[in-house]
Each structure stands twice: as C-alpha cells, then as structure tokens.
Amino acid sequence: MTRKTAFITGITGQDGSYLAELLLAKGYEVHGLLRRSSSFSTGRLDHLYVDPHEEDVRLFLHYGDLTDSSRLVTLLSRIRPDEVYHLGAQSHVRVSFDEPEFTGDTTGLGTIRLLEAIRMIGLDTRYYQASSSEMFGATPPPQNEATPFHPRSPYGAAKVYGYWAARNYREAYGMYAVNGILFNHESPRRGETFVTRKIARAAARIALGHERLLHLGNLDAVRDWGFAPEYVEGMWRMLQADTADDYVLATGTAYTVGDFVRLSFDHVGLAWTDHVRFDERYLRPSEVDALIGDASKARDALGWTPRTFTPELARVMVDAELASLQGPTATVTPLPVLGFDRPVLAG
Ligand code: NDP
Ligand code: GDR
Questions:
Q1: Where does NADP(+) bind (predicted)?
Q2: Which of 76, 177, 193, 315 is most buried by its number of CB atoms within 10 A?
Q3: CA nearest to 249, candidates 295, 217, 285, 289
Q4: pTM of the entire predicted model
C-alpha cells in the first residue's frame, strides 16, 4: 500500500503538533508549513523531529507563509499531498482587535490563497478548514451546524470568510473540502496567552511560590472546553468520510472562566480569591458570552465523541505545569519554550 501524504499549515501550533503526531503514528508522510522566525518556533515538534540523515524520515518542514501565494503553489505542486489540513491562522481573538487587517490577511485571505493554489495546480486532495465556534459569536447556545453566524471579532469575521470559501470551493469546483467547526480545545501545549493555559500556569507558579497574582478579564464568559488531542482525531475522521461535509466538535458542557479558575486553584489547594485580580485590559471590545456546542452530527456520522471534560482538563493542565516546573523527570508532553515577549495586553 502506498503511504499517504499530508500537508499541515499551522504545524507548529497546538493542534498542528498533535495532528502531526497522530498522522505519523498512522504511517503518513507529514509536511508542514513553517514561518521563518528569528528564534525557534518548533518547540512543540521537537519530540517528533528525526535527523534528516536517518532512514525513514517522514516529517518535513518547509519555510513558507500564508501571505505568500506563490510559495503555496510551488510547495503544493511539489508535495502533492493526499490531505491538506489548514490550521494556520492568527488565532488570538483579543489580538485580532489590535491587528484586524493582519488577521483578515492571514486567517481570512490565507484560506483563499491555499484553496486557490490547490485549484490552480489541479490537485486531487482532501481539504480540512479549521473553522471555529467564534463564528457563532452572539447567537445563543446550543450551537450546531445549522446555527446562524454572528461573529464578534475580526478573528470571528475572518473565520466566517474562510468557512464560506471552503464551502464555495466544494460547491463550485467539486473539491473535497470540509469545515470542522471546533469549540475551544485545550492542552498543556496551548499557547500561554489563551485563558486556560494562563490560569493553569499561574495556579502552578503561585502554588510553588514563583508568582503571587493572576490578572484576568471577564470571568463570566461561558465556554465548552475539550481536550485538543481528541479534536485533531476528529479532524482526521472528517477527511476519511465518503463525502465532504461540515461538522461541529464540542463536549456539550458549559463552564465559565471563573469555574476554570476555581477548578485549577482547588487542585493545588489554594483559594483563588486570594490570588486573582481583575484587569480591564483583558476585556474585549465585544465579547462572546456563551458557546456550548452540539456535536451529535459528528457522533452519528463519524463516531466521534469527547472523552475529557473541563474538570479533568484543568487538572491535567495544572499537573503539566507543576511537572515542568519541578524538573526533568516529569512525564508530561514537551512544552513550548517560553519567550520574553509575553504580551501585556493580549494574555
Ligand atoms: P495556534 O495559535 O496554536 O497555532 C497557529 C498556527 O498558525 C501556528 O503554527 C502559527 O505559526 C501558524 N501561523 C500563524 N500565522 C501564520 C502565517 N502567516 N503563515 C503561516 N503560518 C502561520 O492555534 P491552534 O493550534 O490552537 O488552532 C489551530 C487552528 O484551529 C487555528 O486556525 C485556530 O484559529 C483554529 N481553531 C482553534 C480552536 C482552539 O480552541 N484551539 C477552536 C477552533 C478553531 P507560529 O508558530 O510561527 O506562530
Ligand atoms: P477564545 O479563547 O477567545 O474563546 O478563542 P481565550 O482563551 O483567549 O478566551 C476565552 C475567554 O476567556 C476570557 N478571558 C480571558 N482570555 C484571555 N485570553 N486572557 C485573559 O486574561 C482573560 N480573562 C478572561 C475571554 O474574554 C474569553 O471570553 C479561542 C481561540 O483558540 C480561537 O482561535 C478559537 O477559534 C476559539 O477559542 C474557539
């Protein structure tokens, strides 16, 4: 049997690293798009890296950027992947208010550039679009595939554009293109400025005496938090289906940001009220109040169900932080190297 080849944009991100791991375990050859950076951005992939001089190398990284159409064309025409997973994006909602044009360019137009590269080359490939529950925005829960979109940020608006671009290429050109509408999914590899990772890090650091206070914005927002490795498996399942369709992945459960704080601090035996302070700089100009997904279509059509729910997720994430602070004997998945550039406003 010939080996399948996948191309992943956003391979250095949380989901990209878990997806690369999954596809390599399934025997795929995996190619990833890597943005050039003045420092290494491959911390989440280091454990998968094999010296290119070894035999049976199956993970390849290629410099490129979602703003660079011609590079996408040359890369895809050379790799000719069986499956394309488009995960690359400026994915931070708060940052999208600071950088709306850049977010539109990478998260929105980046999608069209990739789809158009596939079409121009005449590539017969299956395409996964990383769509988001942020597209539902102000539409009240529960949200499913039929729920109207009402984005509340430049990021959400860019994702709506990407969603319709993928659907349009499916309808106009018969491309096998699917939208995975994923609700929040987290892990020890989550970026440090997303709220769950920020809380888990702080709980661990405060418990070990490295820090004293955690500053947060809106504690009342409701989110449906699942576990990222389970969600990337759902992405793969979507591309194995007989026909291309769109699916929600979610746990169907609801917790507030405040609940996540309490669960995390309880786990290290601290009273969160002693350590959490409000900082209005972390508020968004318009907020998404409540996201709670209905993933019954994915369950019925793909056999996908979530197994990890928010309370366990909080414990897993706090434990990973404790382990990474306590030394090299830790059994956690590798964490990204922390930079010195923790944004003041974006966290
Ligand atoms: P991350 O922010 O962890 O990763 C984003 C990835 O995109 C990184 O690899 C980043 O590279 C890359 N990237 C950003 N800009 C560019 C660019 N101009 N050119 C090439 N690559 C670029 O996101 P997640 O892994 O959490 O999410 C994956 C995708 O799923 C994203 O599209 C996100 O919007 C979407 N999504 C995520 C959800 C979640 O809860 N995690 C829920 C729903 C949708 P670098 O490492 O160099 O920054
Ligand atoms: P979200 O994730 O905006 O849902 O987007 P994030 O973790 O950033 O925020 C979740 C909620 O927490 C509130 N909040 C804070 N958020 C951050 N980041 N920092 C804080 O200090 C803070 N205090 C309170 C936010 O207001 C918000 O309500 C994520 C991203 O992964 C998107 O790419 C993805 O599409 C969606 O999830 C689904």
A1: 127
A2: 177
A3: 295
A4: 0.95
In sequence order, what are the residues at sequence separation of 6 or more whose Cβ sits closer than 8 angstroms to the Cβ of residue 223? Answer: 183, 184, 254, 255, 256, 257, 291
Contact predicate 264/199, CB 8 Å? yes
Residue 113 CA neighbour count, 13 Å, CB half: 22
Q: In whole angstroms, what is the distance from residue 151 CA to residue 108 CA?
A: 13
Q: What are φ and ψ of residue 94, in 5° steps?
A: -60, -40
What is the C-alpha separation between 339 and 337, in angstroms, rounded?
A: 6
Residue 32 to residue 12: CA distance in whole angstroms: 8
What's residue 51's pLDDT?
78
**Cβ-contact 137, 149 below 8 angstroms:** yes
Residue that the structure tokens 């997303």 belong to: 194
Please give the average per-residue pLDDT across 163-187, as a whole number.
Answer: 98
Q: Is 269 helix (H, G, I), strand (E, B) or coil?
A: coil
Handedness of CA 147, 150, 153, 158 (dihedral sign): positive
Determine the Cα–Cα distance for residues 16 and 23; give it in Å rounded to an integer. Answer: 10
Distance CA 29, CA 111 (A): 23
| Collapsed DSSP state (helix, strand, coil) of residue 179 | strand
Q: Is the pLDDT of residue 238 over 90?
A: yes
Residues in the chain: 347
91, 96, 132, 153: the active-site residue? 132
Task: Please state the ipTM of this predicted complex.
Answer: 0.99
85, 155, 161, 247: the active-site residue: 155
The tokens for 17 are: 């690293």
Q: Is 347 in the pocket of ligand 2 (CB under 6 A)?
A: yes
Atom of ligand 2 nearest to the CA of 221: 28
| Rounded Cα distance, 56 and 346, in Å | 41
Contact indicator for 279, 347 with CB cutoff of 8 Å: no
